Amino acid sequence: MVGGSMGAHDGGGAREAVGANISHGAADLVRARAQLLEGGLPRNPRLDAESLRLALVDLYELWLTTKGTEVGITRDSGLALVAVGGLGRGEMLPYSDLDLVLLHDDVDPKLVAEIADQLWYPLWDAHIKLDHSVRTVAQAVRVATDDMVAALGMLEARHIVGDPELSALLIGEVRRNWRTGIRTRFDELITQVEARWQRSGEIAHRAEPDLKNGRGGLRDIQLLDALAIAQLTDAVPGLGPDVPGGGLTIAHRRLLDVRTELHRVAGRARDQLRAQDADEIGAALRIGDRFDLARTLSDSARTVGYSVDVGLRTAANALPRRGLARLRRLPVRRPLDEGVVEHSGEVVLARDARPQRDPGLILRVAASSARTGLPMSATTLNRLSEDAPELREPWPRGALNDLLILLGAGRGVIGAIEALDRTGLWGRLLPEWGAVRDLPPRDAQHVWTVDRHLMETVARAGSMSTRVARPDLLALGALLHDIGKGRAGDHSVVGAELATHIGRRLGLWPSDVSTLHAIVRYHLLLPDTATRRDLADPQTVQRVVDALDGDVQLLELLHTLAEADSLATGPGVWGEWKASLIGELVRRCRLVMAGEPLPTPEPIAPALIAKAKTGGVHVELRQGEGKYTYAVTVIAPDGTGLLSDAAGVLALHSLRVLSASLGSEGDSAIDEFLVSPEFGNPPDAGLLRQELIRAINGQLDVSTALAKREREAVGARASKYANAEPKLLWTKTSVPGQVILELRAEDRIGLLSRLAGALEHTNTDVRWAKVVTMGSAVVDSFCLDLGIDDTEKRRATIANAVLAMVARPEPRKPDGDRPAT
């Protein structure tokens, strides 16, 4: 429960406390509203979100009834004032528009206009946002008939002051027309809803969600109410007794509370939650920090989203069939599995199913849904939630097989697990899921919550099952690889222990339990090693082989899981360069595991050595293995600043460095880069050579040119400010005096050039470098030869120089410095 409710009594107390300030002018209304927002009531220093909404409803109604009576809107006047929108729903937010309709019946138009002016003008003069209209009942009903948005608004209409029979006539006619006309308007309604979702996105997976219009937001709850008024579905679909978060009613309350505090923080009407306001709103609602708030919103939005899916599906099935469809026979019940059938496009229980005696029925229903792509009936899920018993431990073999069918169903697994989870059934099967449910990611690379990421990984792994000898362990590993997140400690270590307990509960063989443990424990081993260590170093490969105890099957599973995990993380995390690096590491590990010697690094091509011996500067550019990647080889006299100049020239020509490696022959450096043009084709190698010669000779100031290009770039803010703090890691190698410096940061224009320049300015000898770019983030590893000068002071000097080159999060201004709104 978010916040605490003060109840109707305290809302009335707020009305009594501010009522003395209400007079004929709306300016007093504004002052009274400010008093409520500032917590100026004697008995209530600060109203919580729900009590504030109740007090605002009372406040507006008090002013409108007082003013309406004064200007002649009485019971026998032939006039009535009706509220729609937030005031109509009784959900008045601090700065929401005031939506009013002045109804009249056989009243002199001149008198109606005078009364309307006396009502509207004080509100306008007080700068209260007002959406108003003056209509007869017939006119208002006609507008609702012609305009879908107006119809949805009038369904929430509520009488404020004047002739109650006139208001009741309007409300009754609008609702009656909505019920009788929904059959012809349903397709238009669906089109508008889907367009809104497309425009505003999903609240659960947006960094700055639209709480009102996004999928899973307040508009969707109003949609459910509209479908209930049309008598097509219940406004609050049954979600079972074990629903995470408390169900739709609590989700509605939470969304309203967050939007209320958003208004209060912003000082004006706002629907989109900004990242910089999240901590303050979370604290005001006693939820926690921005991550806790994001988790709460994800839970609420996904509950609403599931409820809307059920509501729309139920409504569509409840509509009478049209045209030739009326002549077709009623849908038959097609068997899908034991106790499971298809009926009216949904997966339902067979008539002879006995959930109380069949604990595996939940998994068969879910597996049938995932396999066929048909949704599970809400009634079926509710019945299973109420009646199905717990699976005994270890699970029966049939239940494990049904779980594996579910996990191997491709994209269908996502919707099936989501439905089970929203109705409390998935948590019953996998209690450990609670810690990752709706858990927001902690880095910018992840676009999903942790639980959704696990489902996405399972879906990806399902399409790769033929690559491995044990697709069952691949599926289980994909499901559990991040199960340790949300708990204290290294999530790989914690998750491995949880995977052991889960594997035993599922009834796996002891050897398979050990493999599942190792999959979760080492699911990051291959990508971390391949992208951050020198694959030519025998010690690198040997460490991987030792960690996996020489198990080739485990290596195969981790290789496939690494790809599925990366693809399920977000755009840019998996690419040709990362695939080739991990593939090469796996190849070398296989050779060692097979007892063959690790091959030495391939020698530099003789042609390159020959060019290096001739001296001078040479640049070669050739097509890479991918369609949009290119290999650039730079040969030049070795010296301070060469790497910085070479990387800078590439950046100035819009070539993004995906990876880089350094080599040398005699007095010449041989540096190789894998690059990708930001757009179009790469420049000619001759042009790159000329620019590099200018940079080496001091005729081109690379750092100044990069700074200018960064300022001119569209979206240059990202080059200065990042979303997350950069991180530096130091690791010792097997060679005395050599250390590995690993940098994790957000990318910016010419970052490699800047980093190389920083290391050169600290007189640091770089033995080799490995650069990997993943989306907007980079993981750069440098092997530094510090010799006997490997001290904490020396490392601190290098770290400060490197961190000065990377983007840092924008400092948050103190509340007193926040610009006025």
UniProtKB/TrEMBL annotation:
UniProt lists the family membership as follows:
Belongs to the GlnD family.
Q: Which InterPro entries match?
A: ACT-like_dom_sf (IPR045865), ACT_dom (IPR002912), HD/PDEase_dom (IPR003607), HD_domain (IPR006674), NT_sf (IPR043519), PII_UdlTrfase/GS_AdlTrfase (IPR013546), UTase/UR (IPR010043)
Q: Could you tell me which SMART domains the record lists for this protein?
A: HDc
Database matches in Gene3D superfamilies: cca-adding enzyme, domain 2
Give GO MF terms, alphabetically. Answer: nucleotidyltransferase activity
What is the name of this protein? Bifunctional uridylyltransferase/uridylyl-removing enzyme
In the UniProt record, what gene is named as encoding this protein? glnD
Catalysed reaction, written as an equation: [protein-PII]-uridylyl-L-tyrosine + H2O = [protein-PII]-L-tyrosine + UMP + H(+); [protein-PII]-L-tyrosine + UTP = [protein-PII]-uridylyl-L-tyrosine + diphosphate
Q: Which NCBIfam families match?
A: PRK03381.1 (NF002895), UTase_glnD (TIGR01693)
Quote the CDD domains the UniProt record gives: ACT_UUR-ACR-like, HDc
Superkingdom to which the source organism belongs: Bacteria
Q: Any idea what job this protein has?
A: Modifies, by uridylylation and deuridylylation, the PII regulatory proteins (GlnB and homologs), in response to the nitrogen status of the cell that GlnD senses through the glutamine level. Under low glutamine levels, catalyzes the conversion of the PII proteins and UTP to PII-UMP and PPi, while under higher glutamine levels, GlnD hydrolyzes PII-UMP to PII and UMP (deuridylylation). Thus, controls uridylylation state and activity of the PII proteins, and plays an important role in the regulation of nitrogen metabolism.
Q: Which positions fall inside the HD domain?
A: 450-551
Concerning SUPFAM superfamilies, the annotation shows: ACT-like, HD-domain/PDEase-like, Nucleotidyltransferase
**Which part of the chain is the ACT domain?**
631-707, 740-814
Q: What does UniProt say about this protein's domains? A: Has four distinct domains: an N-terminal nucleotidyltransferase (NT) domain responsible for UTase activity, a central HD domain that encodes UR activity, and two C-terminal ACT domains that seem to have a role in glutamine sensing.
**Entry keywords, A to Z:** Hydrolase, Magnesium, Multifunctional enzyme, Nucleotidyltransferase, Repeat, Transferase
Q: What is its EC number?
A: 2.7.7.59, 3.1.4.-
The entry summarizes how activity is regulated as: Uridylyltransferase (UTase) activity is inhibited by glutamine, while glutamine activates uridylyl-removing (UR) activity.
Required co-factor?
A: Mg(2+)
Q: Quick one: where's region Uridylyltransferase?
A: 1-335
